[in-house]
Design goal:
Blueprint: E1 3-5, E2 8-22, E3 28-29, E4 36-37, E5 42-48, E6 52-55, H1 57-61, H2 68-71, E7 79-80, E8 85-88, E9 99-101, E10 106-111, E11 118-122, E12 125-130, E13 135-141, E14 145-156, E15 159-161, E16 164-171, E17 193-195, H3 202-210, E18 215-221, H4 226-230, E19 247-254, H5 261-269, E20 274-278, E21 291-295, E22 313-315, E23 319-322, E24 331-336, E25 342-343, E26 349-350, E27 352-357, E28 360-365, E29 369-374
Parallel strand pairs: 2-29, 16-17, 17-18, 18-19
Antiparallel strand pairs: 1-22, 2-14, 3-5, 4-13, 5-12, 6-11, 7-10, 8-9, 10-11, 13-14, 14-21, 15-19, 16-20, 20-21, 23-24, 23-29, 24-27, 25-26, 27-28
């Protein structure tokens, strides 16, 4: 049987979701293998060194660099508060003294009689890593973090902005074709993950931000509105580090596109549950997709074990999504994979797939398809 390998998009009722939760530098791991975790549980913590500041004591006091150690009121390694007097000259007859005060809360790292400067470091910045999702600690990464595993329903989107978020999920539209409009949002949605249908406008997304909604999952959004939200034109880059209250996950792509029926039905099945989402996206090599993780209760986990294939290909009967115009975002079933090259409107010769979308069959370049992986 003919088949072709293509990027996969997961819409799974049950799978094993594994996450590495690691510190940026070495620190302390606070959990053990086998511990049950909730999303907000801290799994590792450390202190990042504070920023360094140089204080030109010699210049401020109008003295020679070699005299700086003699006028210091603190020593190397001492902690000081902002406004503390760091150094003071003797003045004349006890009068006309000059002094230098600390510009920060921090520590004196070095005092130089050569440059006439002292080096100060801001107070350490505490860093904590939480679990992100409900799960079990499967392994410990010494001094760095943990590996968490969860039985969950798992949905990948096409594009997202904003980083990790979590909250109770609420579907606030009646069907997958309904637009998520501003009048559907209110103060009761603060801290929740709201699910819409086909589209969310810039106006509605701004209202979601103002209401401090934790996240929005919807079919589509206008690409050109991203610049107003982000403050810059989004190129081929990684998203997820934006300082946004409300993470946004698009399940279908740019424009007004109804949410896929399998995606909407799966979300509807778990309406009201506490979920974790991540809008981080990388479109280039090393693809990162936005995601929705819905942890399952033990009674919801099927008896049949889950096996993740390393690589899946499309073949006859596969469910696929078109990822380029003119059928961008539409889903269909592969009817056949003709082996011969076919000429496109651009006059290029490519291998195509015959895809049935609704009641019509189209010849679509295989490179323009991604498989929707379902269970």
């Amino acid at each position: 049987m003919a088949h072709a390998y293509t990027p996969g998009l997961k819409v799974l009722h049950h799978t094993k979701v594994t996450k590495n939760r690691r510190l940026p530098i070495k620190g302390e791991v606070t959990k053990q293998v086998g511990d049950h975790l909730e999303p907000n549980d801290i799994v590792a913590k450390t202190d990042l060194p504070g920023n360094v500041q140089m204080v030109k004591v010699a210049n401020f006091l109008n003295i020679g660099p070699a005299d700086v150690p003699n006028v210091m009121l603190f020593s190397e390694g001492d902690s000081v508060k902002k406004g503390d007097m760091l150094a003071q000259t003797e003045g004349m007859f006890g009068f006309f003294k000059s002094d230098v005060k600390s510009p920060i809360d921090g520590t004196i790292e070095s005092i130089s009689g050569v440059t006439g400067q002292i080096v100060m470091r801001d107070a350490p910045i505490p860093v904590e890593v939480d679990a992100y999702m409900t799960g079990i600690v499967k392994n410990i990464i010494p001094e760095e973090g943990v590996i968490i595993e969860s039985d969950a329903a798992f949905i990948q989107g096409i594009f997202g902005i904003g980083g990790e978020s979590r909250g109770y999920m609420e579907i606030i539209v009646t069907d997958r074709e309904q637009e998520l409009t501003a009048d559907l949002l209110n103060e009761a949605h603060q801290g929740k993950i709201v699910v819409g249908g086909s589209f969310i406008s810039l106006e509605t997304y701004k209202k979601a931000l103002a209401l401090q909604i934790a996240g929005v999952v919807v079919g589509g959004f206008n690409y050109y509105d991203l610049e107003e939200i982000l403050g810059y034109t989004l190129g081929v880059a990684i998203t997820g580090s934006e300082d946004l209250v409300t993470s946004l996950v698009l399940t279908e792509g740019y424009g007004n596109i109804r949410m896929g029926s399998r995606t909407f039905d799966l979300l509807k099945e778990h309406d009201g549950k506490f979920v974790s989402i991540n809008g981080a996206t990388q479109i280039r090599a090393g693809v990162i997709r936005p995601e929705i993780v819905i942890p399952l209760q033990e009674s919801e986990i099927p008896d049949t074990p889950v096996y993740e294939s390393e690589e899946k290909g499309i073949g006859k009967g596969s469910l696929v999504r078109v990822i380029r115009a003119p059928y961008f975002g539409r889903m269909g079933e592969v009817m056949s994979l003709p082996p011969e090259l076919q000429q496109m409107e651009s006059e290029t010769m490519v291998r195509v797939a015959k895809v049935k979308i609704d009641n019509d069959v189209f010849s679509i370049p295989r490179a323009n398809l991604e498989m929707v992986e379902t269970d």
